[in-house]
Amino acid sequence: MKILLRIFAQAGAVWLCGYLLPGFTFTLTSSPDTFQFWLTLFGIGLVLFVINSAIRPILKILLFPAILLSFGLVSSIITLGLLKIYDIVIPEVTIDGFWTLVWAAVIIGLTNTVFEWLTEE
């Protein structure tokens, strides 16, 4: 159940980025009051969840010495790189510019932090 809620949180973070950031666009062919819109948004959240759950831990283990030496800066670079991969993999999502990428990473990170805070036991 928590995984499903996390996927919805990821989808909500993507929607929030599209709403707040002018360079972050996601193009959906259906209107927000249709089931197709929400299904596509759920799929986008699912892809973001898979990228964050599968690829991020592997990169953090492989780059652990660099993360220690840079005092965590490499961890931020990993986040930005994964978000750029997300931009490439999902054709509905377009992230224009470096600062849009940075702010999208901040919004998604804050959304994940709030989700973890609300669902901790």
Provide tags for this entry.
mainly alpha
Please mark out the parts with pLDDT under 50 across 5 or more consecutive residues, or reply none. Answer: none
Averaging pLDDT over every residue, what do you get? 88
Terminal-residue CA separation = 14 Å
Strand ordering within the main sheet: 1-2
Total DSSP E strands: 2
Percentage of residues in DSSP E strands: under 5%
Helical content band: over 70%
Assembly type of the chains comes to: single chain
Query: Can you summarize the main beta sheet?
Result: 2 strands, antiparallel
SS field, number of helical segments: 5
- Helix-strand sequence: HEHHHEH
Description:
This protein has one domain (2-28, 35-119). α2 (35-62) packs antiparallel against α4. It has helices at 2-20, 35-62, 64-69, 73-89, 98-119, and strands at 24-26, 93-95. The protein is mostly helical and 121 residues long. The relative contact order is 0.19. The mean pLDDT is 88. The two termini are 14 Å apart. It is built from five helices and two strands, in the order αβαααβα. The longest helix has 28 residues, at 35-62. It has a two-stranded antiparallel ribbon with strand order 1-2.
What's the structural blueprint in terms of helices and strands?
Elements: H1 2-20, E1 24-26, H2 35-62, H3 64-69, H4 73-89, E2 93-95, H5 98-119
Antiparallel strand pairs: 1-2
Helix pairs in contact: 1-2, 1-5, 2-4, 4-5
Structure at a glance:
The chain has one domain (2-28, 35-119).
